[in-house]
Design a protein that fits this description.
Distance between the termini: 48 Å
Number of domains: 1
Helix content: 40-55%
CATH topology: Rossmann fold
Radius of gyration: 17 Å
Shape: globular
Structural class: alpha/beta
Strand content: 15-25%
Order of helices and strands: EHEHEHHEHHEHEHH
CATH architecture: 3-Layer(aba) Sandwich
CATH class: Alpha Beta
Number of helices: 9
Largest sheet: 6 strands, parallel
Length: 202
């Protein structure tokens, strides 16, 4: 049986936006992925919790926003695990679930520079290929140097792919909502509908 190529896209998704979805689409194409699993965090310990939507709400918004693509799915594994969400635990759990398949962890290129500071980065690098999304304005030489260091130290397998013209962030959306500007065009219909119905403006 041919191993599946499974992409993993984790994050707070507060809320999920079209940038996240475009990132998954680009990663799927670049690495010829069979599936992409979106995994909302339970508690992102590095982020201020005061403005973060409840975990179950974020989970449902992701689920409702990716129905258009059969190869996209969402997992509640970090929410079910509870407490702070650590990537190495998620990667370990996924590797146990899919021992014969190849895992691809999708990150922004800037994340490559901070991964060594995460809990047990060696577990992540040993069990998953890293797909690093690079924007047009990113400095390629610094990224190449860091990738080389991680390959030497952890035998990391890191591939860079382009996300040119994807320029949407959750912070940008929250700022627009606070300023009474529309977030239409930045958010999936399911998210816009939820925010309107629940009068969420941050």
């Amino acid at each position: 049986m041919v191993p599946l190529r499974i992409g993993i896209l984790g994050g707070t998704f507060n809320p999920i936006h079209k940038g996240h979805i475009m990132l998954a689409i680009r990663a799927k194409k670049a690495a010829k992925l069979d599936r992409v699993i979106f995994i909302p965090s339970n508690i992102s310990y590095m982020k201020d919790q005061s403005e973060i939507l409840p975990a179950k709400v974020r989970l449902e918004l992701v689920r409702d926003s990716i129905t258009f693509e059969p190869s996209f799915e969402v997992s509640d594994m970090e929410i079910r695990r509870g407490g702070d969400s650590y990537t190495f635990e998620t990667i370990e759990a996924l590797k146990a679930l899919y021992p014969q398949d190849v895992l691809f962890f999708i990150v922004g290129a800037d994340t490559v520079f901070s991964m060594e500071k995460w809990q047990h980065p060696e577990v992540i690098f040993q069990n998953a290929h890293i797909l690093a999304a690079s924007r047009k304005d990113f400095e390629p030489k610094a990224l190449e140097t860091k990738i080389h260091t991680l390959k030497e130290k952890y035998s990391a397998n890191i591939t860079v792919f382009s996300t040119e013209n994807i320029d949407i962030s959750s912070t940008m959306i929250r700022d627009a909502l606070r300023s009474d500007h529309t977030a239409e065009g930045l958010l999936p219909e399911a998210v816009l509908r939820y925010m309107t119905e629940h009068h969420i403006t941050y």
